[in-house]
Structures are given as structure tokens and as C-alpha cells.
Design a protein that fits this description.
This protein is an alpha+beta fold and 361 residues long. Helix content is 19%, strand content 20%.
């Protein structure tokens, strides 16, 4: 098929792994890279790197993302209409002793510890050279073509299901299942910002990050899965599902998405993915009012690091991971590397996924 773009965005690497690639820099996590991760296992000890799936709690942190809501399944057959929780087969056959539980969940896929797929964030960019910017994603996949919005169901609100208003959106390309098919297992490298900076909110740029890497003797190599510890998720977890948004907004560092040297380093280091225990990896700041060459404000992304990683360079992002216990153990043992196993749900067409990552040391 013909290539989907005539022009690639500045600073991008579209086509790096072929014009139809949907895995991006995770292609750098090869079997040899997995073996490097396995070689970091000396103690056989594992750390769970996810928050409980019902944390943060409520919708104060992000009103658009709903916490998990669980229900019992409904039985069919002779027991039609009964709930399938604490349900005895004796209800249908006096000789049977089984008692079963079965449940279903309504889940915001990016509510808690999560992966962003490459379809999560795109940009308006003139990829076909016709002078008109269109909504496109990594490697030129298009909104409205491969990546399709949901169909409106105007009856959803009346049924008490506002979440179901737009049904069956689909990432026919770049969906989270592409990361799941890879396996998302390799060598993790932890950068402990919290140890050096505390938990005060601040944007970390290239020079500060390099100083921290030098101080801790950390080298990031091609194909490494880089995890950034800020302490944010640990603070959130201690709030026990009652998030104090004012306090959280003052908590934890994040990468400076407006630092061009930092963005270059992310690409030039050839890391495979970028993960943090904060909500966005980058520190989200108000829109910068920069004048353009022709007057007026400059068109720009709301989330520059997301645009740089997901849209331009095929670098998956992980957010709200729980890294504090792992960070403490690694520091106590003079280490920064570990085996990371972190597959998302293999849910075709989804743009994000909860995860229960495991670090093995």
C-alpha cells in the first residue's frame, strides 16, 4: 500500500521500523534485551508496581475517568434473573454442592496504574501535504479512518448510563493490544527523582536529569524501559481513596515537556518506553502564550511530551505506577536495573489499559 504520509512532523521518526509499524520503540526490546532483564534477577524477589485499581478513589483527580464499578452476573436457565454471586448449584440440582461467584466490572481503562497506547494522543498535522492539517497519529494513521470515534446513543442519559453515550470507539491501528502482543517485558531502569528532589512539585529538565543520572551512576541504553520515581503515587495511596487534589497538585516532580534538550535525549538514548508514578510523566503546566512569527499565539500541544513520545516517536508512556518500594530497595542495594514484566490487557481497539507490572530483582 502507499505510504500514509508525504511529510513527517519535525523531530519525529515515523517509518523507523517500517511504514506500517504499530509498536514504535518497543521494537527495541528484543529477545536479547529480555535476557538482559533476566540477568538482573539475583534475589528472586518481586515488587508489584501497580496501585490498587480503585485508587485514586472517586473522580476528583479526573472527572472524565470513572472508578471501577463491580456487579454480580445474572444467571440464566432455570435460575434466570438470580445473581451469580454466592450462588449454589443446589438451587437447580439438590445433589450438587458447588457455590460460585462471578462478577463484571465497568472500568475506566486509564483510571489508575496504566499504559498509554500510541493511539492515545495524536496531533493536527498536514501529513499529506495538501495545506490542511488533519488529525493523525504515529506513522500517519488517521482519525476517521483507522482510528474511529464512537457512535452516539442519544438514549444513554435517559437510561442512567451517561458513560455509554458514545459506543464502540475503536483504534483499528495502534491499539493497546499491539503492546500486549509484544509482551512488555525487558530490562527496567529506575531514576529516583524523589531521592534528590523530594516531593515538591517541579519540572525537571535535561540538565537536572543528567546531574541525577551522573550522581547515581545510571546509564540508559537502547531498549531500556525507563521508570521515573517521584513519590506522587505513594502520597496518593496514603490518602486512602480520598484524594486531596490541592495537596496533590503541589506534590511530585515531572519531566519538563518544553525542554528541547530533554526531548532530544529521550529519542537519542533510544529508550523503549517512559514510565512514571505521577499522572502524566510530564509536569502539566498552563498553556504557554508564545507569539508566532505571523502574529497571534503559536499553535502548540497541550501535552508536549505526550506529543513527542506517542505521536512523533512511538514511545509508549506508563502513568500512575507505584514505584516507591522498588526505589527504596534498589537504592539500599546500590542498583537501578531490574527485570520488568508489564503487559497491558489484550483488548483490541482500546487506547489505554490498566496494568499490574512486576519488577523482579
Amino acid at each position: 500500500m502507499a505510504r500514509r504520509w508525504k511529510h513527517a512532523p519535525e523531530g519525529s521518526h515515523w517509518g523507523e521500523f517500517g511504514p506500517d509499524d504499530q509498536r514504535g520503540r518497543m521494537n527495541l526490546v528484543t529477545p536479547a534485551k529480555v535476557l538482559q532483564g533476566v540477568a538482573e534477577v539475583h534475589e528472586g524477589r518481586s515488587f508489584v508496581l501497580s496501585l490498587p485499581l480503585d485508587v485514586p478513589g472517586g473522580r476528583a483527580m479526573n472527572p472524565r475517568r470513572i472508578p471501577p464499578q463491580r456487579y454480580a452476573v445474572i444467571r440464566d436457565g432455570k435460575s434466570a434473573g438470580q445473581q451469580g454471586f454466592c450462588w449454589s448449584y443446589q438451587a437447580e440440582d439438590a445433589d450438587l454442592t458447588d457455590v460460585v461467584n462471578d462478577d463484571v466490572v465497568l472500568l475506566g481503562l486509564q483510571y489508575s496504574t496504566q499504559w498509554d497506547s500510541l493511539a492515545h494522543v495524536g496531533s493536527r498535522f498536514d501529513a499529506d501535504g495538501d495545506g490542511v492539517a488533519e488529525a493523525v497519529f504515529y506513522n500517519g494513521f488517521r482519525a476517521g479512518e483507522e482510528i474511529r470515534a464512537g457512535q452516539e446513543d442519544p438514549t444513554a442519559e435517559a437510561r442512567g448510563e451517561p458513560h455509554a453515550r458514545y459506543r464502540h470507539p475503536e483504534a483499528g491501528a495502534l491499539g493497546i493490544e499491539r503492546l500486549a502482543e509484544h509482551g512488555a517485558q525487558g530490562r527496567g531502569v529506575l531514576i529516583d527523582l524523589e531521592h534528590h528532589l523530594g516531593r515538591t512539585r517541579q519540572a525537571v529538565g535535561y540538565e537536572q536529569l543528567m546531574r541525577i543520572l551522573d550522581a547515581d551512576g545510571i546509564t540508559v541504553e537502547a531498549g531500556d524501559m525507563v521508570c521515573i520515581h517521584t513519590g506522587f503515587a505513594d502520597t496518593l495511596l496514603a490518602m486512602d481513596r480520598q484524594p486531596d487534589v490541592v495537596r496533590l497538585h503541589a506534590t511530585g516532580s515531572g519531566l519538563d515537556g518544553w525542554d528541547a534538550r530533554l526531548l532530544d535525549w529521550i529519542v537519542d538514548s533510544r529508550l523503549a518506553c517512559l514510565i512514571a508514578d505521577n499522572p502524566a510523566v510530564e509536569l502539566v503546566v498552563p498553556k504557554l502564550m508564545q507569539p508566532s512569527a505571523t502574529g497571534g499565539s503559536l499553535r502548540q500541544p497541550r501535552l508536549p511530551l505526550h506529543e513527542h513520545c506517542l505521536f512523533k516517536n512511538g514511545i509508549h508512556l506508563g502513568e500512575l505506577w507505584y514505584l516507591t518500594e522498588l526505589a527504596a530497595w534498589l537504592r539500599a542495594h546500590g542498583r537501578s536495573r531490574f527485570l520488568l514484566t508489564a503487559p497491558p490487557l489484550r483488548l483490541p481497539g482500546a487506547v489505554g489499559s490498566p496494568a499490574t507490572p512486576i519488577a523482579t530483582v
